[in-house]
Design goal:
With 215 residues, the chain is an alpha+beta fold. The chain has a single domain (9-214), classed as Peptide Deformylase, CATH 3.90.45.10. The protein is built from five helices and seven strands, in the order ααβββββββααα. It has helices at 9-20, 45-60, 147-160, 171-193, 200-214; strands at residues 65-67, 77-80, 93-104, 107-111, 121-125, 128-134, 140-146. Strand 6 and strand 7 form a beta hairpin. The relative contact order is 0.17. Bound molecules: zinc ion. Zinc ion is lined by residues 113-115, 155, 159. Zinc ion binds next to helix 3.
Amino acid sequence: MGPGCVLSPLLFNLIAVTAMKTLQIVWHPHPALRWKCREVTRIDAELRGLVQQMFDLMYAARGVGLAANQVGLPYRLFVINPEGDPEQKDQEMVFLNPRITRRKGSEEDEEGCLSLPEIHASVTRATQIVVDAFDLSGRQFEVVMEDFPARVVQHEYDHIEGLMFTDRLSPAALGKLTPMLTDLEVQFRARQKEGLIGTDDELKAELQALEKLRT
Ligand code: ZN
């Protein structure tokens, strides 16, 4: 092997960027789901491409929201379409570096999660919230949201904080889901053992590298 076989840092970066172009939804207990995401400091064409992929993955999985760390990106960013309909582009919203500044009321309703396939439970959320965030053109906006869209935003906001809806359940409600959660854990560890997924340490190192690229 000659020196030409050594990867230059630039080439390594390109590989990392290329790897980012094929996103996949990760399932519990992928460490990305427990990552406290960092603020995005750079909006560019690549980020817009990643966001488009997130919408595509969300629709393909019949979801209404998707957070960046659910596709292995450690950024404070999520997308929603409360109608879940790709034809209704006017319902799409992108939240970059969001903050929930007010929460009012409380309501219980059933939730699911694209990272917890087949698992559903009743979760208590605020009925009305005020959110401020940036859009993909870098403009800051503030929005008042109610009922289902407010629930979706609170669920996705939890994700970028490293929380899952199962963290909000009573011990009894969580207990009922334990066999299904254990199943997912067993499957995940088996795929790690087969080398189809990296080890937890490798996955965390990847998240740290992606963090450096954009935060
Ligand atoms: Zn979720």
